[in-house]
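USER:
Before I trust my own judgement here, I would like a peer's view. Write it directly below this note and I will take it from there.

ASSISTANT:
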Amino acid sequence: MTKTCTKAYLADSIHRRFGFSRSECLDIVQTVVEAISDSLAKGEEVKYASFGTFLVRHKEQRMGRNPRNGDPAVISERQVVGFRPSRMMLSDINSEEN
């Protein structure tokens, strides 16, 4: 069974743990997401201890192909967001699978 972790799920988790109103919890989650997005937009790394690091990577222009028809296509240069999980998170994930 796959489950998606949404903003509503995160807000509900905060509500259950700390007892804030649901709207306050949703505001907290939205504020955190905006802070992470703003930092990444500035090209800064976002490090969260025991979780991982979000970072911006620059990708150069390259040749690719259109998946619909196979025609060559130029993929423009761009910035992409990457995530590098912490060792602790990897350890937690791997211990739960076993």
